[in-house]
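User: Good morning. I'm curious how adenosine-5'-triphosphate would be positioned relative to this chain. Could you predict the structure with it bound?
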Amino acid sequence: MRLIIEDIVKRFEDKQVLREAGFSFEQGKIYGLLGRNGAGKTTLFNCLSKEMATDGGQVLLEENGNRRELREQDVGYVYSLPILPEFLTGYEFVKFFMDINRDKLKTEQGIDHYFDMMSMTTEDRHRLIKNYSHGMKNKLQMLLFLLTKPPVILLDEPLTSFDVIVALEMKNMLREMKRDHILIFSTHILQLASDLCDELVLLNNGKLSGVPSELLKSPEFEQSVIQLLKDDEAHV
Ligand SMILES: Nc1ncnc2c1ncn2[C@@H]1O[C@H](COP(=O)(O)OP(=O)(O)OP(=O)(O)O)[C@@H](O)[C@H]1O
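Assistant: Good morning! Here's the predicted structure, ligand included:
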C-alpha cells in the first residue's frame, strides 16, 4: 500500500504554503515529517485528512496496484491537542465510539483489551477525560485508530507530551502498527525522528523531499538536517 501525493498546492490568500509538493509514502515504514515553524506541516495534514480543501494536485491511495483518490475515512489524525468529550470517562467514550461505528469496526476484542494495549490502568480508564493529562488524551485518540484501522495515520507532534515510559510504549506501538498502516508523524525533535523513523521527509519552501536514509543513522545526522533546512531556505 502507498500514499501518493502529487503536486499538491495550498494557498492562504496570497501566501502559498504548499507548492506542488509531491511524495510517496509506503506501508511498513514510519515517516518523520520535519520542517521549521510555519513550514506547513499541519496544513499538509489538514489537506490529507480533507479538513481543508487543496488548491491543486491530488492525493491517491494505491492498494494491490489499484489507485484511487484518498478518502476522509482512510485517514486517522491524531491531533497534538485532541478535542474529546471531557464529561465522559475514557471507557464511556470508547464504548460510545464503538457503538456508533459498529459497522466500521475491524475488531472482535472487548474495550479492555485496547486499554490494556495502551497501558492505561483500570482507574484511569474510568476517570473523566476532563482529568486526563495531555499524553493520556493522545493515547485515547490512538486507541480509536486501533479499532477502525484507517490505512493512513497522521500524528501531529504526538510524542512530545509523553513521559519517557509512555513515549517508549508509544514507540513500540507505532513500530507494531507500521506493518498495516502508513504512518507519518511530524516532530521538531530530531533525536526522536532519527530514533523512531525509517525515513525522514523534509517540508521546506512548500516542497517535500526525502532525507537519504544513510544520513539518518550517521553521527552527522543532526548537523546535516539543519544544513538542509537552512540551504533550502536560501533558495527561496
Ligand atoms: N487557516 C489559516 N489561514 C491563514 N493562514 C494559515 C492558516 N493555517 C495556516 N496558515 C499559515 O500557513 C503557514 C503554515 O502553517 P502550519 O501551521 O501548517 O505550519 P507548521 O509547519 O505546522 O508549523 P509549526 O511547526 O509551528 O506547528 C503559516 O504561515 C500559517 O500562518
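The chain has nine helices and ten strands. The CA atoms of residues 85 and 93 lie 7 Å apart.
Let me know if you'd like a different ligand tried.
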